Amino acid sequence: MRKRIQWLEDAVFYEIYPQSFKDTDADGIGNINGITEKLPYIKELGCNAIWLNPCFDSPFGDAGYDVADYYKVAPRYGTNEDIVRMFMEAHKLGMHVLLDLVPGHTSWRHPWFVESMKAQKNEFTDRYIWTDSIWESPEGYGSLRGISDRDGSCLVNFFTHQPALNYGFYKIDRPWQQSMDSEGAIATRNAMKDVMRFWLSKGCDGFRVDMAGSLVKNDEDGKGTIALWQDIRSFLDESFPEAVLVSEWGEPDKSIEGGFHMDFLLHFGPSHYNDLFRCEKPFFGGEGDASEFVEKYLENYAKAAGRGLICIPSGNHDMDRLARTINGDKVKIAFAFLLSMPGAPFIYYGDEIGMRYVENLTSVEGGYGRTGSRSPMQWDDSLNAGFSDADGKNLYIPVDPKADRPNVKSQKTDDTSLYSEVKKLIAIRQSHKALKNSGEIKFIRNGAEGEPLVYMRSCEEERIIVALNPAGKDQVLQTDGECSEVIYSFGGTPDFSAGKCRIKRGSAVFIKIS
Ligand code: NOJ
Full-prediction pTM beyond 0.70? Predict the structure, then answer.
């Protein structure tokens, strides 16, 4: 049985895209010291854990998801010493930090790949997946071909400049495909363990793992990849039992079996996450339907129950900003959901103040349509929204140009702001065990068209009904107990009479049941 990590029980994460959070040296790009400076802000909001997007040396063809040196913080962000100091400061504040591990591919500029491209056999020949002839492309994958003397095509994982590391094939049907226990595949696995060991020894608390389900190829049911992660977990259990792993996988049954503590619901794949926030008629926009999400969630919940957590993010660096599809008070109802569900909530930087998707930007560092969700954090109403002292034209990504762009400073002093609501919701979550990460959930109404989304969160000590009604009609709810206390309400307090409760349109309420 995997060690239970105590701090995960009440972890509320904050995702930081380092480029855009806080620039302390006026070069137009965020840095690690900027993050350290802002830790008290994150703590004050109520978040006690951080997921930091990749900050390692890279040519930045995919914003750092194309690593060129796993052991070195990219100079534009600072030094390894800076990040160690950041870990220490975070720990002093009772916070934890997960780095972003990209084990599936590197940059084509990584020295391993440079060696691997050579015609002469060397230590890195099998570090990546190569066919044995330039004329054969790996079926079902993109490939890098004709760029070196090596006679072969190298499989790529994502963009063309991200060659796939070799963890072997689960089913082998071509002579160049190596098994999971081949020398090359084992060497890659060990190299990745070394990377983990390095950063865990320096004080990070674990990793968010990029494309965690994609490592072993020809592995339709994920059996090979699960076994690979189980082996990595055993290594961690021996040397770093406290190390936390959260996966970008989207299939909690598999990732949790592989040893991950948590898995994300993603904006792609089967989760119906987008039905809630990002589609033509999102549920939290007031006109949508949450029922398919609920059905899928329950399936996943049953698979993960008691073994691991499902994380529902407010957004991330790959999705449109929440505020692109949901606005006004409805965002508060969406946050009432995000902060009352089981599993660890993840807040994408700036979502707590309703930062907007910046339209019509030219792609920056492989961002393409994602660039608009990666603009600088808006701290105040000074130059560059307080993000940087650089000349505005030298910023990594331009700041939201709208005059009424939200900022932290003004929202902090406004009790009715989104920031204040999010802060209040986190505090309520943290003071009620039933609402915390491992409390149970039972759905009462599934948010089918026009219906509210209603669920019961419970633990031994308490039961809390959460009713979310973003639609335009009041709703009557039958309760199976006495409503003893309204612990949260937004958009109007409910009316109670004779075991019934009227939930106002456009409202969110948490009610304690005795
Ligand atoms: C998922 C990351 O979140 C995304 O930003 C990146 O482009 C791909 N994986 C490739 O690493």
Answer: yes
